[in-house]
């Protein structure tokens, strides 16, 4: 396979990854890494490095739109980024010394968890009585709806912060945004409305990925020949996905994607268990 052929196929694959990730809310990393490792047999650490760069680009583009609309809770995002950034650096350092087969098995397990999280019932209601910590830290806010501004308050701030630290570790270790864990922390634990939790999570992913990417860059796991087409493809796919989201039924897409990603997860676990990475 020539370099040009490899680049074009990778660009097309990354575009599909960004498209599917945008439509399902899981991000392109959960598709890009299996694509690079299972199809192209790229070392998983180089695949993670490319996925982290794609996450930074993707988050930067999408987050700005949500911030402009007033949905993202910027203060909450900046507060929780303390946890995710610390966790991301720790996870990236651990990844350097962890066997690739172990990383592949853990990646498969997280994919299965992410697939399950996409089809669970979402918290759509705004909490009217928050905790003392949310008032002290001024984390309560509002978000716009078609019926006007809706106020919401937070609870279990400490527990949410702890889960975010774990999400950061997994992000640095596996190269994915860990959006499922972040939404679990904000949606289920802190009882933030789903629309706010997903947009705030998207706002945070880029910063978390940037912290991890520094470690991978220092260790030499950033290959421009892999990262460049991945970043371009994922960005293009995410932009297309945002346009298609209003025309397609996201519920049907999520069920289809859950089946596909579960198959990929089992394949990653199987190959990791048999030391094929």
UniProtKB/TrEMBL annotation:
It is found in: Cell membrane. The chain crosses the membrane at residues 46-67, 79-97, 103-119, 161-181, 201-218, 225-246, 252-273. It is a multi-pass membrane protein. It holds the Pfam family TauE. Keywords: Cell membrane, Membrane, Transmembrane, Transmembrane helix, Transport. The keyword Membrane applies. InterPro entries: TM_pro_TauE-like, TSUP. Belongs to the 4-toluene sulfonate uptake permease (TSUP) (TC 2.A.102) family. This is Probable membrane transporter protein. It comes from Mucilaginibacter dorajii.
